[in-house]
Amino acid sequence: MSSSEDLLVVIADGAQARFVRFRPPGKLKTERTFESVAAHLRSSELRSDGPGASFHTGSTAHHAVEPRHDPHESEKIAFARTVASELNALPEGSFGGLILAAPARLIPTLRDALAPLPARNLIGTVEHDLVKVPDEELWPHLEAVLPAGIHPARL
Predict the structure, then answer these.
(1) Partner of 9 for a Cys bridge, out of 20, 111, 136, 152, CB 3.0 to 4.6 A?
(2) pTM of this structure
């Protein structure tokens, strides 16, 4: 079972992420943050070029064909994979237990992008966007997935 010192919480949404560690005596501290550059771009800036043209026989009119995917949604998925890659790159033994906290639509992407070792250390997921929640207010959101015996510091 993991002790509080080796638990890592990865908090992410489609644009920001942070790695949070438990620090004795039961406090949480952000140790690393990430931000997607693409999150601040307009959809038109995310496309490589303009939409393709569609030509209908019997007509001289041309119509732009909109992409079948939302460029921002694609960037959110790509960012989640980048966060998982950063997690996968951590040295073996740098954490013993892992909690993923992200909006429900991103949890499968994060989980699927984990390498075997981090995936084995996954002890729970929290399907909420906690990116903007300060470290000192995270405990109530995480308590349901924490291993027994790990509690917040009593103030």
Answers:
(1) 20
(2) 0.76
